[in-house]
Amino acid sequence: MKAPERVAAIVLAAGASRRMGGRNKLLLPFGSQPLVRHVVTTILASRADPVLVVLGHEAEAVRAALAELPVTFVHNPRHAEGMTTSIQAGVAAAPADVLGYMICLSDLPLIEATEYDRLLDAFREAHARDPACIVVPEFEGRRGNPVLFAAHYRTAILAEERLTGCRGLVQRHPEHVVRVPMPTDHILQDIDTPEAFAALTERTPGQTPR
């Protein structure tokens, strides 16, 4: 792949999992490996390049869970302030020549590499027509993650003041938003609570909660 065609994956793995009852959800077992390793391994199997993982809460433990994977680690010293700071840390660390950024949540373990590639392909097609495109996945009309931003928005992302992500950026540029229908609800199945994790493991019989 030519360098200018690259789309960086920015994996947000800095959160404190406050709703998980004191456990770091990224380190919970998903099959034979920690949840975060499963997610990052899947992203690595896609055509995203490079893959940057933003660390913060329990950074060393999360880094250890991703040992030997070909990723770039980015530390976010402001992670406690909100998700936006992690997005900004990842975007700031991404190579200058990428077409854009795929903002990946690390608690969406059902998304498959082919689904990431579906979004990456849609982004590249949209970018050829509109260098300011934003790609948003949908399932039955419900928006999910990951969202992909053209590098056109780098300065705007780094200046974003809302601390809950870049949803405001999407809302401010509806004329550039491309909605991509997805074949499954995997883009919606994030894990925030012990109940959500239990439901996920029931849905995926090969996974065993502890």
UniProtKB/TrEMBL annotation:
Residue ranges occupied by any MobA-like NTP transferase domain in the UniProt entry: 9-175
GO molecular function, a single term: nucleotidyltransferase activity
SUPFAM superfamilies: Nucleotide-diphospho-sugar transferases
Entry-linked InterPro entries: MobA-like_NTP_Trfase (IPR025877), Nucleotide-diphossugar_trans (IPR029044)
Top-rank taxon, per record: Bacteria
PANTHER family in alphabetical order: MOLYBDENUM COFACTOR CYTIDYLYLTRANSFERASE
Protein name as it appears in the record: 4-diphosphocytidyl-2C-methyl-D-erythritolsynthas e
